[in-house]
Amino acid sequence: GPLLDIRSLSRDYVSRTLFGPAHVTRALDKVSLTVEAGEIFGIVGESGCGKSTLARLVMALDRPTAGQVFFAGEDLFALPSKELMRRRENFQMVFQDPFASLDPRQRVGRIVAEPLHVLARKPSRAEIRDRVVDTLESVGLKAEHAERHPHEFSGGQRQRIAIARALVTEPRLVVADEPVSALDLSIQAQVLNLLMDLRQRRGVTFLFITHNLAVVDCIADRVGVMYRGRLVETGPAHQVFERP
Ligand code: ADP
Ligand code: ADP
């Protein structure tokens, strides 16, 4: 079966006001989609259509109002919360802004290693060191970069650091939320190539979220188009974008 199977997922946000009725925003409205292992699945849609809400639910950082998320056949939100915490080890996220998402006071090695320290299984210091070096190299950085601080790197290199941090635990699914939107155009292509290469070499599955149609057309195998909380179209990228 698919790695990720999202079934009729809805999320309401209720804003309570002191006076007057509560206001309900249906941020996600019965979204269903599947993502196969090793696939890059793009989610596109304009700001406010529900992309981040979907990302948070897939990462199990939030709970749905209705519907299910099956990961590797397991109904995530039916699990006891302790079990759900363990399942989160399968997911990592890459964010838009590599300036905001990397702690400037820490060395790169520490930043990249961080997800290893929150695993239920405690890796040895030697394993942590080996994995950090291996992962830095897999994103085109060097072992000696571990000693430096984020401000010594360019935007594209910082996003490589953020990607290394997301991959260091070998997660089965990476949710990338606008991972190249804050980068210069010439650097965007390099980071997109890196992600495609990581899928090829390591079999990483990506849910790739963006408002940028050209970017998703370039990187995604299949695309889901969102509009006002609903998934209005799904298909291979060439079909959704009507290329021959
Ligand atoms: P983006 O479009 O990049 O997702 P937004 O500016 O829409 O960014 O949202 C940024 C953050 O603010 C998100 O965590 C989102 O959940 C939250 N947010 C967005 N809209 C509202 C709202 N109406 N009330 C409260 N929080 C909101
Ligand atoms: P996107 O990521 O596509 O910009 P979001 O998932 O952030 O969209 O938001 C979808 C809708 O839900 C928007 O109308 C937004 O204002 C609203 N929203 C998001 N987060 C919150 C929140 N925490 N509280 C209230 N409304 C929210």
From TrEMBL:
Keywords: ATP-binding, Nucleotide-binding, Transport. GO terms for biological process: peptide transport; transmembrane transport. Residues 9-244 form the ABC transporter domain. Its main location: membrane. GO terms for cellular component: plasma membrane. It comes from the Bacteria. It is a peripheral membrane protein. The keyword GTP-binding does not apply. It is found in: Cell inner membrane. One of its GO terms (molecular function) is ATP hydrolysis activity. Belongs to the ABC transporter superfamily. This is ATP-binding cassette domain-containing protein. The chain holds residues 3 to 246 of 331 of the full protein.
